[in-house]
Each structure stands twice: as C-alpha cells, then as structure tokens.
Amino acid sequence: MELEVLEKDNYYHIYNRGINGGIIFFNEENKNFFLRQLGKYLEDKISIFGYCLMDNHYHLIVRLNDNGKEVTQAFSNFFNSYAKSINKENDRTGSLFEKHFKRIRLEDEQYLKQLIVYVHLNPKHHLDLKFEEYKYSSYQSFLSQKETKLEREEVLNLFGEIENFIFFHNQKNDLLTEKYTFE
C-alpha cells in the first residue's frame, strides 16, 4: 500500500493501531502524554479538527499548516518519542505501532463532517461507552467554553451551529445503536 503524501493546506485523517492490534495506551497518563507530545511536536505545523484515543488505536483529523515533508517528519518524531517512552515504562522492546501511520486526504467538506462524527463515536462503537462522556475524544472540547488548541470555531461553523453539531452526533449514534441492536 502506497502512503498518501502529505501536502500543506490539505485535511487528513491520521490513524494507526498497536502492533497486532495490541494496546498502545496502557493507562490514562499514557493518553495525556500522547496529547502533550502531539502538541510539543506538531502544535504549529497542524490544526486539529478532532481526535479520539482508544486503548489500541487513535484517530486524528488535521489540516497541514506547514510543508508536507516537515510535517511527516514531525509526526514520525512524535510517534517515535511516544513509542520509546511506552517501551521504557512497560519494559518492552520493538514496535508499538503497526508500520507507518496511515493517512487519508479528505477531499470535501461533507467527508470532513462525517469523519468528525465517526471519530467521536468510536467509544460507542468499540466499547459501548457513552461517546458524550468519553474523556479522550475532542467531542467535549467542542461543547466547552474552556480554551482549547482545537479548531473549535471552524468545526462548529462547519456544522452551522453547536445545536447541529450535537444533532448530527446523536443522529449517527442512534443509527449506530440500531445497527448493532438488530444485526
């Protein structure tokens, strides 16, 4: 599989999982550390439109603010620093993540909106948790008035207003619940 080349001013779904589907976040502090390292390595290079950290995988929705080669290297440095820290903490060796991080260029606004909702619903889909209460997703940050590094205003404008943002999430959640209840 050929990897998508990252290009400035484009939106991407960045994701990966643990090697062989294994755990990459062993505790809450690991998830907090991942988010801190993301800021440390990529804060000025990307804008973040959504994220979700699950125990064995992560999703990031970003727009590149810098040239693709520089951002790709920054992502590589970020993931390497995280993996080295986790390996040291857990007395393990070898790869933490499956191969290279995956990336899909988002071609239109509709896909961007659907992806934001999909990423936020991950806790419901994978763990049957209430996505609205999940701590390691960007969903709550979009509803909050607290300062954030997320592109809150831009995302809410994408949905028209905060009520539509909530509506789209609840509508997809209802469809997801029906799908898994009746299959």
TrEMBL record:
Residues 7-122 form the Transposase IS200-like domain. One of its GO terms (molecular function) is DNA binding. It comes from the Bacteria. One of its GO terms (biological process) is DNA transposition. InterPro entries: Transposase_17, Transposase_17_sf. This is Transposase IS200-like domain-containing protein. It comes from Flavobacterium pygoscelis.
